Amino acid sequence: MAILKTFTLGLALLFTGAAALNAASLRATRGSQAVQNARADDDHLSRMENQEMVERWARLELLTRVPEKTSSYYLHAVQPQYRYLRPWAHLFLERLSSQYHARFKQPMRVTSLLRTASYQRSLQRRNGNAASATGPTRSAHLTGACMDISKKGMSGAQVAWVRNVLSSLRSKKFLYAVEEFQQPVFHILVHRDYLDHVDNVTSGD
Fold first, then answer.
1. CA–CA distances in Å: residue 110 to residues 152, 167, 179, 191, 196
2. Which residues share a beta bridge with 112?
3. pTM for the complete prediction?
4. Rounded CA gap, 190 and 36, in Å?
5. Can you give the pLDDT at residue 204?
6. pLDDT 10s digits, 72-130
7. Virtual CA dihedral for 116, 119, 124, 126, nearest 10 degrees?
8. How far apart are CA 109 and CA 185, in angstroms?
């Protein structure tokens, strides 16, 4: 019995240590915004200036329409004109939320997707902590490759699972993820290379 208790305690400490390490790896730094913008530039991503540009990119299939609700995720307070993502970011959302739903039997809550520069400027006027709409530290949401997944309502196990998945994919440079605490969300910029990851995973099925 003592050996079993020691083993169980060891597993718990190992899990706690791994979870703490992953949480630390996702904490924002002073240069987080600049890193995201540099990677978006590497992926040759335009920033959405206004709604007309969004509609034009959607017609060219450079942006994908995101449903308001599926069995594995739902959009919360995302206005219809901003329900778009880059195709690879949309694929990421579908795959992550499907795995989350299969494991926890609950849908993910998504609170932000694409933004335009005009919307970001209005957000700055309302929220002093909002990122800029221009320059090297502008919001990566303007690329259409970003999303915010809410931690609200998640259990500790659910938050830890999402952390672990994001930390793994970030370490492999398929995305850049930040865990925010003032607003309880995971902020995720999905890199174009994520498509290579999916191809490798599915080819091994």
1. 10, 19, 14, 18, 24
2. 148
3. 0.86
4. 10
5. 67
6. 999 999 999 999 999 999 999 999 999 999 999 999 999 999 999 999 998 888 876 77
7. -160
8. 10
Of 2-16, 46-60, 71-85, 176-190, the poorest mean pLDDT is in 2-16
Question: What b/e readout covers 2-37, taking b as 16+ CB neighbours within 10 angstroms?
Answer: eeeeeeeeeeeeeeeeebeebbeebeeeeebbeebb
Residues in the chain: 205
DSSP state of 146: E
DSSP state of 71: S
Six token digits for residue 147: 């999303």
Domains detected in the chain: 2-203 (3.30.1380)
Percent of the chain with pLDDT over 70: 87
Number of H helices, E strands in the chain: 7, 7
